[in-house]
Task: structure prediction
Amino acid sequence: MVPALLAWYAANARDLPWRRTKDPYSVFISEIMLQQTQVKTVIPYFDRWMKQLPGVAAFASAKPQKVLKLWEGLGYYSRVRNAHAAAQVIMREHGGRFPRKFEDILALPGVGRYTAGAISSIAFNEPRPILDGNVIRVLIRIFGVEGDARDKETNAALWQLAEDLVAMEPKRSSELNQSLMELGALVCTPRQPKCSGCPAGKFCSALREDRVDELPLRRARVPATKRRFVAFVARKRNRFLVRQRSGEGVNGHLWEFPNIEVGLKDKRDGRDIKDTLFRVADEQPICRIQHSITRYRILLEVYRAEATGKSDGVWKTLSQLHRLPFTSAHRKILTALMP
Result:
């Protein structure tokens, strides 16, 4: 199976910007960006990032607001905060050179076994296994693995399978690992996989037993929780009031318009909404924004308002606001304010 995967990858691998180099920093940035994010979304972010922060030194010395601005819209901001800390560790403890040893890479902030394995194998061609969502699905189907991949025993078995595979072609681990990821992305997809064109089809247990749609086994989803927020757009002499979130929790250090959470069953809107610092000016909202953060489905209603008390925010012009990193939902508010 391994020769078939390598031949298929050589003929079918997508031309992605981070595949045009073996630079470990580029591999590191691409892997961090690709966590829980689609390739088509990452490409423009990666290109923009590498133009402005082309190496570890530039990244390590960049101001946090610049880093967050470059990341704005990718979500899961703890990824980039950890990556920033990792770059600083590389400068401080490794003389600015990306570490080559797997153990040193694994010790970097925010780097787990998968990311360390991806950097080691792709950048340095070290025979290290990888196990992301695509690879998990491929291995489960090919080898007919039962159980939930998040369970300890099943996860350990999958890591062992991945390790066994790279051990078969240790000098080509970069290509092999990427072939597994690419197969999951292009052929062995979650739904409607293209089994007829799969290079591993004749070795696949799920295909042989007609269980492709059953595997991997799916755990019941946690029901989404609905939440409702009201945001206030206060203006004073062509400046708007905004505030920066604390470093704790989701969207730490990003900017937003002042807002409060209101109950889902609360029927109030417009001028009926009371806040000690704001008086809503119009009954109808500027806009209503629906967005999702992890398991939350959020409705954000946005009203023009007058600031009636002292706020912990700052007043900024539109041009200044556009230079700040906003949460995705509040970036849409800023877009709605454009003349």
Strands lie at 225-236, 239-244, 255-256, 259-262, 278-280, 287-293, 296-307, 314-316. The mean pLDDT is 93. The CA atoms of residues 237 and 317 lie 9 Å apart.
